[in-house]
Design goal:
This is Putative DNA modification/repair radical SAM protein. It holds the Pfam family Radical_SAM. The protein has about 425 residues and is of the alpha/beta class. Helices cover about 40% and strands about 10% of the residues. The protein has helices spanning about 5-15, 90-100, 120-135, 150-160, 175-180, 185-210, 235-250, 275-290, 295-300, 315-320, 335, 345-355, 360-370, 370-375, 395-405; strands at about 60, 105-110, 140-145, 165, 220-225, 250-255, 325-330, 380. The longest helix has 24 residues, at about 185-210. The structure holds iron/sulfur cluster. Iron/sulfur cluster (SF4) binds near residues 69 and 181.
């Protein structure tokens, strides 16, 4: 093996892969076999994130950064004057195994530029996963990128070797995609997503009848959207996201703040700050939608197209809906508790448990771990103490902001003001 050449390829292709944030490795139950290597079950795979939120726990590389497409937002686009490289299938297999043995990684995240054709690229990605599983008995985590436009048959095969598959929608709306990636069709993304969803359902159903049915993409599928490359509102982004969760059984939608890499006038100029705060607010909204029972239309709608960057989306919703508060923590259902600013999933459960034995007062709530400095404006409890609730929403917001310590408060990106 020419180690210098491999090292050079690794530098180029790992660097090109860093813009993809859809590499969470949770949710897989693949366990080791007697003669196997690696184990992606339970905590066998751990996440490691760089400061800006990028995952680094997997060997995260592109098979190649050659591409026949010219998507304006992508560093790998064919018109970009960059150094190109391509791994051979066996080189990726060898690298994965040797990094795994050295304990550098717990798995592989493999994506690729599209060379020759979507099918040709997908075939090579599958070859890597297949060799790892069948020839190396590798049971570590494998996340494969699904190439838009690849055939149904290849998508079916990919899921037999990968733990997770993902097609990155990248630009949240059809119009944005048309503007920045005119060669691509919206349907090219939807088709593989649909195929993966159907295969997962089918294999799960079969495994109930026939125990030996192989697992198909046991960690499900995910997608990624770039935030801030085009002028989509937060509402547009989150409505797209809700659509994918509902229609394609997505495990996760990832939001990646656009990193300016091009002088193309259609895109934010180089040097524009990455919208990290906006990215964070979108993740919070996603969380509220998936785990707190919020309908996305409650959080974002025609009157509220953008998220408030100063406060989190739940507090923002509560301030717009003061007529629903205060709520009595000793009486309301858990679903209502989850709507109170300062009360999270764990603390809602603790409240439900604790109030079986006594009526809760402020002291109890503080002991449970409720953030009473914001919750106190939205709840009542077993106490005569009255909080200031006759303030306007704007006053209340300022009061809460004064006493909160958000790590993002001084980090408002100028890119946010563009839209
Ligand atoms: S097809 Fe993928 S890799 Fe190629 S330019 Fe578009 S986004 Fe980049």
């Amino acid at each position: 093996m020419d180690f210098d050449r491999i090292k050079e390829k690794l530098n180029i292709l790992a660097d090109a892969a860093k813009y993809d944030v859809s590499c969470s490795s949770s949710g897989s139950k693949r366990t080791n076999t007697k003669k196997g290597l690696g184990d992606s079950s339970g905590m066998g795979i751990c996440h490691s994130y760089t400061q800006d939120g990028r995952c680094v726990s997997l060997l995260k590389i592109l098979l190649t950064n050659h591409c026949i497409f010219d998507c304006a937002y992508c560093v790998t686009r064919k018109s970009n004057d960059i150094k190109r490289a391509a791994f051979k299938v066996q080189e990726v297999v060898d690298l994965t195994i040797s990094f795994y043995r050295r304990n550098y990684i717990e798995g592989l995240f493999l994506s690729s530029g599209i060379f020759k054709s979507p099918d040709h690229t997908m075939e090579r990605l599958i070859s890597v996963a297949k060799k790892l599983r069948l020839e190396e008995n590798f049971n570590g985590y494998i996340h494969l990128k699904s190439i838009p436009g690849a055939s149904d048959e290849l998508m079916r095969e990919a899921g037999l070797y990968a733990d997770r598959l993902s097609v990155n929608i990248e630009i949240p709306t059809k119009s944005g995609l048309k503007l920045l990636a005119p060669d691509k069709k919206h349907e090219d993304f939807m088709k593989p997503m649909e195929k993966v969803k159907n295969e997962i359902i089918q294999y799960k159903a079969e495994s109930k009848l026939i125990k030996s049915t192989p697992k198909y993409a046991p960690a499900g599928q995910s997608t990624q959207m770039i935030v801030g490359a085009t002028g989509e509102s937060d509402r547009d982004i989150m409505y797209s996201s809700a659509f994918f969760y509902k229609n394609y059984n997505m495990k996760r939608v990832y939001y990646s703040g656009y990193v300016p890499i091009s002088t193309d006038p259609r895109l934010p100029a180089i040097g524009t700050q990455v919208p990290m705060l906006r990215e964070n607010r979108l993740y919070q909204t996603d969380w509220l939608m998936r785990f707190y029972g919020f309908d996305i239309r409650e959080l974002l709608n025609d009157q509220n197209m953008h998220l408030d960057m100063e406060i989190d989306p739940k507090l923002s919703w509560a301030l717009r809906n003061r007529h629903l508060f205060p709520m009595d923590v000793n009486r309301i259902e858990k679903q209502q508790l989850l709507r109170v600013p300062g009360i999270g999933l764990k603390s809602a459960n603790k409240i439900v448990q604790a109030r079986k034995f006594r009526k809760l007062n402020w002291e109890h709530l503080q002991k449970i771990g409720i953030s009473t400095n914001r919750a106190k404006y939205f709840i009542t409890c077993d106490s005569r103490e009255k909080e200031l609730r006759d303030l306007s929403s704007e006053h209340l917001k300022q009061l809460i902001l004064k006493t909160s310590h958000s790590k993002f408060r001084t980090d408002l990106s100028p890119q946010l003001s563009l839209f």
